[in-house]
Amino acid sequence: MSTLKVLHITTSSKGGAGIAALRLHEALRSQGISSAFLATDLTIGFDGKQQEDTFFKYQRPNLLKRIANKVRRAIRLTHAEIAQKEIDSVKAKLQYETLSLPYSKHQLHLHPLVQAADIVNLHWTGIILDYEHFFGHCQKPIVWTLHDMNPFQGIFHYKDDEIRNAEYIGQLDEAVKTFKRQIMKNVEVGAIVAPSKWMLSEANKSGFFDHFEKIHIPNSVDLTLFKMQDKRVLREQYGIDENDLVILFISGSLDNARKGLDLLMAALPMLEETGINLLTIGKGPVNVPESLKVIPLGAIKEASKMAECYALADAFVLPSREDNLPNVMLESFACGVPVISFFTGGMKEHIVEGKTGSFAKSMDAAALANTIDRFNEQRASFIAADIRAYAEQNFNAARQAMAYIELYDILEKKNV
After folding, report:
1. Within 10 A of 48 (CB to CB), how many other CB atoms are there?
2. Could you tell me the domains of the chain?
3. Least confident among 182-191, 279-288, 344-353
4. Which end of the chain is more exposed for a tag (fewer CB within 10 A), N or C?
5. What Rg value do the Cα atoms of the chain yield, rounded?
6. What number is the average pLDDT over the span 220-235?
7. How far apart, in whole angstroms, are the C-alpha atoms of residue 8 and residue 25?
């Protein structure tokens, strides 16, 4: 094994960013890198073994500490408390997917794995990363893998949320953005990795990372788990006719406006094809048009079950308004299933019209309906084996790991 110690830090091992980070960690270990993983719900040491870790567990302050905090708050609020107070004052007016402040009670630079690491690779770090303390004290080379736009935005994680809420919280958002940009200057040796060229371009335009190395490295997918399967057998298990058109939609939360289920539901009544089965995976209810067959599968945690759902579908519909390089697109490709999407984000870089999927010409329900109709007419021309081959070529773990290793080597040399 390499003597280089790389630590991956993310808020959770679950969700899109957490899954992608864990896949990278495993890919690096398979290439001989001593990689560790730190999240609020999972700690893996440099030896590859899971550890008991109380670092993120809440510890109630003693009486004297509680009194001291109460007195301090009566005299002066912290930056975090002032910001949170402002957010709370307008929260009823805000519409957003998620927001994060660059403050945290957790002092990550003191964690033993951080102190033992040669390189720290950050991922999605909402709640756990305190910018001032971490970047002020951690002198190790920093790699930041951009799973969304928050590292170079203010409090929001995508641009649309920033624009939508500017009237109510724009001043705080700009102040946080300025604070974060200034703090990032403390990083002497750093790099950003963007899974999509779109995200890399957006990060470049922000000016946050002018002194960083910048590179585009796509995420990987587990090609042994997500694979082609017998569609007829799977459909029989789910009670779906083998000749029906089956489309799949996936989102962690079905009401996440960024993921575009509302556009898909508005498009479905416009379709020429009436014998459509829609499979939905994610939390929350689905408002179903009367003429539509919907199989709401809820939240699915088992990756093998997810792989079955991809494999039995004719197409995976990904109507995101903004997105980086969604794991779900990679997983669909790995299962040999084409993707229907809008021409935006990381989707426009990997959906090859007529081969790996199809694009809607504009971001609206009518264009999406036309694209699904067009796909239905041409679906026999999509070759599952070719789509699978594209995933093998572009999203394999070894290729991803080697690209990261090259970057780590560059940073190690700069750090000497």
Report:
1. 14
2. 5-220+396-415 (3.40.50), 231-394 (3.40.50.2000)
3. 279-288
4. C
5. 23
6. 96
7. 7
- The token pair that represents 35 in the structure block: 């990689």
Report how far Cα 183 is from the mean position of its chain's Cα atoms: 24
Which residues, other chains included, contact 341 with Cβ-Cβ below 8 Å and sequence gap of 6+?
Answer: 317, 318, 319, 320, 329, 347, 351, 357, 359, 360
232-290: pLDDT as tens digits: 999 999 889 888 899 999 999 999 999 999 999 999 989 877 678 899 999 998 876 66
For residue 46, which of 5, 107, 14 has the smallest C-alpha distance? 5
pTM of the model: 0.93
Query: Over the stretch 295-336, which tens digit does the pLDDT of each residue have?
Result: 889 999 999 999 999 999 999 999 999 999 999 999 999 999
Backbone angles phi, psi at 284, to 5 degrees: 110, 160
d(CA 151, CA 385): 37
Using alpha carbons, list the distances in angstroms from residue 320 to 134, 224, 251, 285, 345: 33, 27, 10, 19, 9
pLDDT in tens, 109-150: 999 999 999 999 999 999 999 999 999 999 999 999 999 999
**E runs forming strands in 15-90:** 34-39, 42-44
CB neighbour class for 181 (10 Å; exposed up to 12, middle 13-18, buried from 19): middle
| 13 burial via Cβ count (<10 Å: 0-12, 13-18, 19+) | buried
**Banded pLDDT at 71 (limits 50, 70, 90):** low
Instruction: Assign 358 to helix, strand or coil.
Output: strand
